[in-house]
Hints:
By secondary structure, the chain is an alpha/beta fold.
Amino acid sequence: MMRFEDGRERGGAATRFEGRVAIVTGGARGIGEAYVRALAAEGAHVVVADLETAAGERVAEQVGGQIFNVDGGHVIRS
């Protein structure tokens, strides 16, 4: 079961992105974060790719995903 910050819950039954991986660039904040949460709620394993490591780690942890810090063309796995 996934719980959103506003108290909504989702989960349980199989969803349309279950078993798939979604990579969201800029997923630490704003619209990117919204996409991360929506894809995770639909069953995707989400990879958050962002320059902001701390914010990306927070989002990834909340949805059970992973964070990849993208720094000047290099990818640093966190």
